[in-house]
């Protein structure tokens, strides 16, 4: 046979390939990726790698020898077209590869800031290792930093800058940090953490232009006309899924490549996993957007890669893993289990040095956001996976035994 082609050599594509071999898949297996490096982890790019605590080798998911050992062909090229009629993928170098099954694991790309000056030198994004290297170099010379967007990446970066004693201002359009992802209580705590570390955060603020001198960034103008000096700007305003390959091949897309509970597209020979895939899940029940979601996390990429590899080697199962996520911001560790929604109720549980926010939707536990409470997080993952719940009163009671509920 023609074997399995994976487009996208990131966390999800790599995992699918590795799990296919571990499950005994013996046919041809090719991982197509446009990046120069072997598959690597992105989370440290905005944390340990940027802070100089790990090097590029430390980011690799496996040593380069792994690919030869497991007979996985890593082809460095961009895939430009899927021809479903002939079951082939065309690469930008002109090659055309045939598949029996095609896995789309194309991830996302940075959302561009739609203002004049966004292309100036000194304005950065942070998604790839190449971008992290550019940013790391720029940080050596920077004094005054503006971060656009108080999401996970913007805040992790701001914390690294503040720890180096650099001046950093974060511009955020909404009234709170990480507004799309966490409860108001968690936002408030992280606002305090960052401000105490010396980060300035400007809420309800928009960027209208970036100005330069000699082609290099010099300042950022806000929507209200205020001008902030800057010699380095990081734009962290979210991502968009890489779904064009799928869309042009006639596969349904809507903020992600649409897949069924088994991660298959409407074409049984094509599946999609990781950041680029939109899938149904019980954990999203009751969310305003419906029960289909696209999740940007290592957990989701890894578990979907494994789930798909199992199906393709004869052990089909619907994808049903509990979503979980982490973000390290300075010395604080945020961990999230489940999927909270914007209208979910919140209950605060304080114990020891940290706290957890328990979220409830339609009277049931939907998510738990833990700050420096890894035991709460681990218990929450198991409670939510099992479909169990607790009352808001129990959640707030530090004497209530979460671990017992989890087992
Ligand atoms: P990606 O890892 O983005 O891989 C997709 C790959 O496909 C890319 O290499 C891309 O270049 C390639 N590609 C796309 N189109 C084509 C094409 N046509 N041809 C060839 N190749 C193509 N998650 C957490 O859970 N915790 C964290 O703390 C955390 N921190 C993060 C920090 C940063 C700076 C970033 C960027 C992400 C972070 N994430 C974190 C998210 C996590 O890294 C992603 O969810 C994960 O990488 C998704 O894996 P993926 O394989 O779906 O996509």
Strand content: 25-35%
**Portion of residues within helices:** 10-25%
Output the structural class. Answer: alpha/beta
Q: Can you list the strand order of the major beta sheet?
A: 3-2-1-7-19
- Distinct small-molecule ligands in the complex: flavin-adenine dinucleotide
Query: Can you tell me the CATH class of the largest domain?
Result: Alpha Beta
Query: What's the number of helices?
Result: 11
Termini Cα gap? 45 Å
Biggest sheet record: 5 strands, parallel
Rg is 22 Å
The tally of domains stands at: 3
What would you say this structure looks like, in words?
The chain is globular, with a radius of gyration of 22 Å. It contains eleven helices and 26 strands. Helix content is 25%, strand content 29%. The protein is α/β, with parallel strands linked by helices and 407 residues long. It binds flavin-adenine dinucleotide. Flavin-adenine dinucleotide (FAD) is lined by residues 7-13, 32-35, 42-43, 45-46, 78-79, 105-108, 126-127, 153, 242, 245, 274-276, 296-299, 301, 325-327.
Keywords:
Enolase-like, domain 1; five-stranded parallel β-sheet; 25% helix; binds flavin-adenine dinucleotide; alpha/beta; 3 domains; FAD/NAD(P)-binding domain; 11 helices
């Amino acid at each position: 046979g023609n074997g399995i082609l994976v487009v996208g050599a990131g966390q999800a594509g790599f995992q699918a390939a590795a799990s296919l071999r571990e499950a005994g898949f013996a046919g041809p297996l090719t991982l197509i990726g446009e990046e120069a490096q072997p598959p690597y982890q992105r989370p440290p790019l905005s944390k340990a790698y940027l802070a100089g605590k790990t090097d590029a080798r430390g980011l690799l998911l496996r040593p380069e020898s792994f690919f030869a050992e497991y007979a996985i062909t890593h082809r460095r090229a961009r895939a430009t077209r899927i021809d479903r009629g002939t079951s082939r993928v065309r690469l930008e170098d002109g090659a055309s590869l045939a598949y029996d099954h095609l896995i789309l694991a194309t991830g996302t790309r940075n959302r561009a800031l739609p203002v004049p000056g966004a292309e100036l030198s000194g304005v950065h994004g942070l998604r790839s290792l190449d971008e992290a290297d550019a940013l790391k170099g720029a940080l050596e010379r920077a004094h005054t930093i503006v971060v656009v967007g108080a999401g996970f990446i913007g805040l992790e970066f701001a914390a690294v800058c503040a720890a180096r004693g650099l001046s950093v201002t974060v511009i955020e359009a909404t009234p709170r940090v990480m507004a799309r992802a966490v409860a108001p209580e968690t936002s408030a705590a992280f606002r305090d953490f960052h401000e105490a570390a010396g980060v300035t955060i400007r809420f309800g603020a928009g960027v209208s232009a970036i100005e330069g001198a000699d082609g290099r960034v010099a300042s950022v103008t806000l929507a209200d006309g205020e001008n902030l000096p800057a010699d380095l700007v990081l734009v962290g305003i979210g991502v968009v899924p890489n779904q064009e390959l799928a869309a042009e091949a006639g596969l349904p897309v809507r903020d992600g490549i649409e897949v069924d509970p088994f991660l298959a597209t409407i074409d049984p020979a094509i599946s999609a996993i990781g950041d680029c895939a939109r899938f149904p899940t019980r954990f999203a029940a009751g969310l305003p957007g419906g029960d289909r979601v696209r999740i940007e996390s290592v957990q989701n990429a890894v578990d979907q890669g494994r789930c798909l590899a199992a199906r393709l080697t004869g052990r089909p199962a619907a994808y049903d893993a509990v979503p979980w996520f982490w973000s390290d911001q300075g010395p604080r560790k945020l961990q999230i289990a489940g999927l909270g929604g914007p209208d979910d109720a919140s209950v605060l549980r304080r114990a020891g040095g940290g706290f957890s926010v328990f979220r409830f939707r339609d009277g049931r536990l939907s998510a738990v956001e833990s700050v420096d409470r890894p035991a709460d997080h681990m218990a929450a993952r198991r409670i939510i996976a099992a479909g169990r719940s607790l009352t808001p009163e129990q959640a707030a009671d530090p004497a209530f035994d979460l671990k017992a509920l989890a087992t």
